[in-house]
Design goal:
Order of helices and strands: EEEEHEHHH
Number of domains: 3
CATH topology of the largest domain: S16 Ribosomal Protein, Chain: A
Largest sheet: 5 strands, mixed
Shape: rod-shaped
Distance between the termini: 116 Å
Strand order of the largest sheet: 4-3-2-1-5
CATH class of the largest domain: Alpha Beta
Helix content: 55-70%
Radius of gyration: 44 Å
Number of strands: 5
Structural class: alpha+beta
CATH superfamily of the largest domain: Ribosomal protein S16
Number of helices: 4
CATH architecture of the largest domain: 2-Layer Sandwich
Length: 164
């Protein structure tokens, strides 16, 4: 439920009197409210503003959005409170973004490292085509040498038999 801190009008014709209330944003101006935080009497010079500071700070802290008029009254009663709160919220958002950005860079680095590891693993499992071709060329040469060494003793044995 989105909450707002706004003015609810009371009094009679031409004699307004306002209550500062916390209510659901979808409720009517003078409708049901959650809590009354104070009063404003605009007929007095300067306007008489009575606010429960601790409750205003609580509701703004939990996310209730003050209307422009109520924000001006709050700033008059608690100078600098809303600006300080807004600054804290912006700092919090910036720090979260920085953490997310750092985590994103870490993930990208992890992904690239994992990709490099997979690639090196594939390289180890499958020899390169040039190496494979070189091995195939060497293999027949070795077989012919082995065949030649096997034939040589037979020829020598045949030559010895003839000479005897």
């Amino acid at each position: 439920m989105a909450t707002a801190i706004r003015l609810a009008r009371h009094g009679r014709n031409k004699k307004p009197f306002y209550r500062v209330v916390v209510c659901d944003k979808e409720k009517k101006r003078d409708g049901r409210f959650i809590e009354m935080l104070g009063t404003v009497d605009p007929l007095k010079e300067p306007a008489a503003v009575n606010l429960k500071e601790d409750r205003v700070k609580y509701w703004v802290g939990v996310g209730a959005q003050p209307s422009d008029t109520v924000a001006a009254y709050i700033d008059g009663v608690c100078p600098g409170f809303l600006e300080e709160l807004e600054k804290e919220q912006k700092d919090k958002i910036r720090s979260k973004r920085a953490k997310r950005k750092a985590a994103g860079k870490g993930k990208a680095r992890d992904k690239s490292e994992a990709k490099a590891r997979r690639k090196s693993r594939k390289d180890r499992e499958k020899p390169e085509p040039a190496v494979k071709a070189a091995e195939e060329e060497e293999a027949p040469v070795e077989e012919t040498k082995e065949a030649a060494t096997e034939e040589a003793p037979k020829e020598e044995a045949a030559a010895e038999e003839k000479s005897e």
